[in-house]
Amino acid sequence: MVDQPAAEPRAGAGGQPYFRCSNMQSYYGESYIVQGVGFEIDKGEIVALLGRNGAGKSSTLRTIARAHAPHLEAGEIWLEDQPLHKMAAHQAAQQGIQLVPEDRRIIPGITVEENLILAQVAPPRGWDLERVYALFPRLGERRKQEAITLSGGEQQMLAIGRALARDIKLLLLDEPYEGLAPTIVAEIARTVEKVKAEGITTIIVEQNALAALRIADSAIILDMGEVVFRGRAQEVLDNEDLREQYLAV
Amino acid sequence: MSTTSDDRSAGGIAAPAGDRGGILEVFKREPVALAAFTIVIFSMPLWIPVLGGYEGLATLIVIWGIFVLGFDILLGFTGYLSFGHAAFFGGAAYVTGFMYRDVSDNVIVAFVASQVGTLILAVVIGLLAMRRTGIYFSILTLAFAEMLFAAALSIFAPLTGGYDGMTRLQEPNLFGVKMDGLTIFYIAAAMLAIGYAMALRLRNSPFGVMLRAIKENPMRLEYTGINVWRYKMAAFIISAHYAGVAGFLMVTYEPYVATKFLHWSTSGEVVIMSVIGGVGTLVGPIIGAGFVLYFQNVVQAVIGEQWRLILGLVFVFVVAFLPGGFVDLARMVWKATGNRLRARRHNVPDMELTETKYGTEERLR
Question: Predicted ipTM?
Answer without folding.
Answer: 0.76
